[in-house]
Design a protein that fits this description.
By secondary structure, this protein is of the alpha/beta class. It is built from 13 helices and 14 strands. The chain has helices at about 15-20, 25-30, 45-50, 65-75, 85-95, 130-140, 155-170, 195-210, 220-230, 250-255, 265-275, 320, 325-350; strands at about 5-10, 35-40, 60, 80, 100-105, 115, 120, 125, 175-180, 210-215, 240, 260-265, 280, 295-300. A six-stranded parallel β-sheet has the order 3-2-1-4-5-6, with helices on both faces. A six-stranded parallel β-sheet has the order 11-10-9-12-13-14, sandwiched between helices. A two-stranded antiparallel ribbon has the order 7-8.
Length: about 350
């Protein structure tokens, strides 16, 4: 029988959404090895996402000086690679970590001591939930991943940063708001049209009195400002551009929102993790990769003969996005908010003494 690791290294995914999708596996590994010193190897910005979750004890970062020496000095008993890169396998092999566990892909099988095979058919990867993909790694070492709910933590500094944003943008008085996230790091093919996001800003204000709050990465600030300018003055769209949100402060901002409207992008999974009604507009990407079964989300995707193509930039007319209307998004939001209100009413009835 293999001894449980006392010092465990876990290489964390790079994309925001993938980090959140890995949460059930990471939580299972923490439960499975409560006495282990668990270290995450990740990009620096990922630390904001996993902060406050209680899944790890220490951190190492890609691109830090003498990384391989630091891995070797830590004398890890095992490394679990949630990443698929050759680089991550090479790093733990060169650091002489005894157990090296990951998927046999990207030409790295010989660098691993324990190999899982990804689902393929006729040589092609079969679209299947990344949540299950990560869970299989945790299960391989004895982790119980029967609880597949997404979850996130918020640290006190992150909560303070959220509160400061809410005060700065006039949202701290309990005013209900909808978060609108119109960008996507993957590429333009994932992004719905700016004028239609502006139409959603108008619609959520007119229909439910929600303040539309536009958020995005620093490089997306021009897009946020354009959408705010396209929205009607009556929408009162808030553009979080100065100061912008961070991956940490965005957690609380989405958690407190009445609604999230977004493309298929990382913060979409924040909505899932915090139980926020979420409308996601899909373009070029395949839904199955990021499916979680979250009942509080409606996913809109037009059926087109050329998609989903998984391209970063559309080479033709972006028809997968132009075929989705503002009315469809507002109707989806209405369904979700009605379900939320009905559930709240049922809870209220249950709370009334007989």
């Amino acid at each position: 029988m293999i001894e449980p690791p006392r010092r465990l290294l876990i290489a964390i995914p790079n994309w925001v959404g993938d980090v959140v999708l890995a949460g059930p596996a990471l939580a299972a590994l923490r439960r499975c090895f409560p006495a282990a010193q668990i270290t995450f190897l990740m990009r620096r910005y990922v630390a904001e996402i996993v902060a406050g979750c209680g899944w790890h004890d220490a951190e190492l970062f890609w691109k830090q000086r003498r990384l391989r020496r630091a891995i070797r000095a830590a004398r890890f008993d095992a490394a679990i690679l949630l990443t698929n890169s050759f680089r991550s396998a090479l790093a733990v092999w060169m650091a002489r970590v005894p157990r090296r566990i990951g998927y046999a892909r990207e030409g790295r099988a010989l660098l691993l001591t324990e190999r899982l095979k990804p689902l393929r058919q006729d040589g092609q990867f079969v679209p299947s939930p990344m949540l299950d993909y990560y869970a299989a790694l945790a299960a391989h070492v004895g982790g119980d991943v029967s609880d597949r709910r997404l979850r996130l933590g918020i640290t006190p500094p992150q909560q303070q940063a959220t509160a400061e944003l809410q005060r700065h943008y006039g949202l701290a008085d309990g005013r209900p708001y909808a978060v609108v996230n119109p960008g996507a790091a993957f590429g333009a093919a994932k992004c719905w049209l700016p004028e239609r996001f502006a139409g959603v800003c108008d619609g959520v204000r007119e229909k439910w009195g929600l303040t539309p709050v536009l958020v995005g990465a620093p490089g997306e600030v021009p897009l946020l400002r354009r959408i705010a300018a396209l929205a009607s003055p009556g929408a009162g769209a808030v553009c979080c551009d100065d100061p912008p949100t961070t991956l940490g402060s965005l957690k609380g901002l989405i958690r407190d929102a009445a609604l999230l409207v977004c493309n298929d992008t990382g913060p979409r999974h924040y909505g899932n993790a915090f139980g926020v009604p979420t409308v996601t507009v899909f373009g070029s990407t395949i839904q199955e990769w990021t499916d979680t079964g979250y009942a509080g989300e409606i996913k809109l995707q037009a059926r087109v003969e050329c998609g989903p193509c998984m391209l970063r930039t559309c080479p033709i007319d972006h028809r997968c996005m132009t075929l989705i209307s503002v009315a469809q998004v507002i109707d989806a939001a209405e369904q979700l908010l009605s379900l939320r209100d009905a559930a709240a009413a049922r809870r209220g009835q249950l709370a009334v003494p007989s």
